[in-house]
Amino acid sequence: GNDTVVFIPNLTMNAQFIQNTIGTWSISGGGGTIVSLHDPQTVIHDLPYGINKFTWTVFNPLTECQASDDIKVIYNGFTPFAGEDQDICTDTTTLNANEVLGSQSNWSLMSGGCDFVNITDPKTKIYNIERGVNELVWNVTKNGFTSRDTVVINNYSFTVNAGNDQHLCENETSINGSGPLNTMWNQDWTGQWIIRTGGVGSWNPNQNVPNPEISGLSADTSRLEWIVTRNNYPGLGVCKASDIVNIIYHKIPETDFESLPVVTYCSPVTINFLNTTSPVDTVAGTIYNWNFGNMGQANHSWSDTASYTFTNVSNDSIAIYDVTVIARAMFVNGLTCTDTVSKEVTIWPVPTADFYPYPVIGEYPSTNNVENASTTNCNTYTLDWGDGVGRVYHSFIANYDHQYEYWGSYTITHTVVNTFGCSDTVRKPITLLEPVPASGGDNDVESCSPLNIQLYARVTNDTYLGQERFNYEWIITKKDNVGDTLDVLYTKNPIFTFVDAGTYLAKLSVQVKNDTVVNPYKFIRNDTLVVWPVPVASFTVDPMQVMAPVQPIHCYNNSENADESYWNFGLDDNSAVSTEKNPMYYYTEEGNYYISLEVKTKFGCRDRMVMEIPVTVLGQGNIVLPTAFIPESELESNQVFKPIVKRNVVEFNMLIFNRWGEIVFETEDVNQGWNGKVNDVLYPQDVYVYKVIVKYENGMEEQFVGSVTLLR
């Protein structure tokens, strides 16, 4: 029969039957149980796995010839399984084939490439898997029979590159990611930059493109990861690849400096420049190079102070120097980072101050003159005369004049300042000799007795450097009797009272003070003082009480030495006056009036008398209302608020209100007042309003509205 493959451990043979022969089955390889050795269609049981070889031998007894044929029966009773196909995004995975007991198994590579950890292990780990399609075969051999199965490993992994590490002096750059996203920009791929350490201020256009521009980098190292994701990955999880790039920003400090002192610079000037770059940010080993326009100073450390002397040779224009500091710091790979700051230093021209004083030596007092010989186009000219007096001029003046208050030696100082603020000063001495004392005025006066007058010495040059130069002597006499001395005074400005009328002389002499020599008194002048007699005002009035407006008063003038009389009858507006010697007057309003009389002599001397007791003018009837009262006063008259009735009241009504308009008291008895209580309770201190209506005997009515203060 034909070779055959069976999948169960038995089969029926199908050998050829030949007449007059005897056929016999035998096992030439493998095994099995032959049910009938001579039956060409015998059944064979218990086939072992693999190849089993049976021989059918035919013998002809007549001819004693025989022939045989072999049949190969393969019992494929096992099925190798190489595992499920895999979609991966890595170069490593684990296979998952089945194991057939009693077999010899191994893996082989049909296509692609990889390395096996154990080629005979059905569940071996493989690595270095090529990208793309990889076909692996699981070979199982048993009893000489080999069966196979194939598994497909689809490796979807890919490679990206974040670019080369960068060392920067600036905090901005472009980064260069690469990978499938660069050439296959479509929906199957997405990319993103992730900041692992450090920081990035901005991304242009965004963090999803391979080659963005970045700025605002953090100082030191920023680790950036470029991640590309395959969006159409059929396997489990996410298929992505990434790479790291290090961006090292070598930030050096913002260089700065300042000049000491910070003032306007006038030529020549040596300026110290202080490096004010923040020491916290200064990179170790940073070198600072200074340049002053035409001269450099290199290799300074941070703490060094640079100095330079600037000169302006011009007299009228500025000189500008550029001062520059360059900070240099060396980093890896020969990278040099620099920062530069420049500032201008302006050097101004300096003017010339000079003058000529006159006189250099002179007698006090005199007017001193200074001729200005300074630069003419300055902004200010300050002249100090040396005696505390000075003045600032804002334009050139050819000559200055000054009057000194004291004699002595002085130093005149002249300072000029140009429009740039630069100045020059010159000083020169002068001397004023001590002067002779003289009268500077008198105390001549004519006045009425008593004359109380302060006699002022008024001697010229009486002080020196704030100290009195003289002792003073005043001799008081009557003019018509000079030999009869009334008094001698030894103060500079004494006060003296002349009581009696007459003409007096006050003789002034001075003595120069000296600690070692007693100098004689020197006559200065005589002052004339005329004292006039004073009148005496006196008068009487009759009667002292009248009825307005029908009853007059009579005034009787009893004054002495009076040439003129001025009466005032005591009205508030001073409208009732008279110049008669003995006037008569009618009052029109009731009240108390104080009459006064002023008298005057032909020399203008005056006296005045005011009556101590007023004239009382009565009307036809009235009352007076107080403005305050004190319920707890010790004086009974102050304890109650009520009107003072002067006369002739026949009807009366009084209301008192608090500040809210409430009536707190009412009476129709003109003799009854308010004691500040309501229902025996004393009201608080406050201002209350009253309303009083009265009717007099003559039929006239009046209403009074006002305020009264209750005091406690």
Short description:
This protein has 712 residues and is mostly beta strands.
Question: How would you describe what is shown here?
Answer:
The chain is mainly β. Helices cover 1% and strands 52% of the residues.
Which features does this protein show?
5-stranded mixed β-sheet; 1% helix; mainly beta; 712 residues; 65 strands
Biggest sheet overview: 5 strands, mixed
Which class do the helix and strand fractions yield? Answer: mainly beta
Query: Could you report the average pLDDT, rounded to the nearest whole number?
Result: 88
- Helical content stands at under 10%
Distance between the amino and carboxyl termini: 153 Å
Portion of residues in beta strands equals over 45%
Shape: elongated
Query: Biggest sheet, strands in spatial order?
Result: 23-29-28-25-26
Task: Compute the CA-based radius of gyration.
Answer: 69 Å
The total of beta strands comes to: 65
